[in-house]
Amino acid sequence: xxVDMLAELxxxxxxxxxxxxxxxxxxxxxAEEFAAFADYAGRQGLDWTLTIPExxxxxxxxxxxxxxxxxxxxxxxxxxxxxxxxLSPEAMKLFVRAxxxxxxxxxxxTMHHHDDFGMATAGTVAAVTAGASPDVALNGVxxxxxxxxxxxxxxxxDVLYGLDTGIRLDRLQWAADELARIMDLPIPPL
Length: 190
Prior knowledge:
Helix content is 46%, strand content 13%. By secondary structure, it is α/β, with parallel strands linked by helices. β3, α4 and β4 form a beta-alpha-beta unit. α4 runs parallel beside α5 (120-129). The longest helix has 20 residues, at 24-43. The model has no long low-confidence stretch (mean pLDDT 92).
């Protein structure tokens, strides 16, 4: 029903989430349901990406198997979420590299890293240098603890790593100030 409703609205890409299967039987059912979902979504003309929350706290091998099932059935991208900042910057690099190495074929990856411990920018930069694309927000604005700030990640990648993100650095301060004004959330003075 959700696929039909979204297709009728003109949506062309959807992103279901992946919960961790409790046991081998649940993992088998999940794989079968992914196949049926992907087939049906494809017939409706929809592309899809897979969202994997709590990626740092899951059974790694199960997650990789489920990701490969999703890839085999047409997932266009895998969106990893370190929802509670469980991965340090060092662990993030190891995680992204090991995860990518376990995939049956390369697909784009994104990493969404919350700022529970004040390390979202560092974790996101580590993920990018290991081969994932960043999921960021201007001024780090998000629910709960926020997540990696666009302006911090872009500047770190540019200044520290020499990576051109395509973002206009001369407009970042204006954008941050404008969002702070609109949301009435001041930018920290330091």
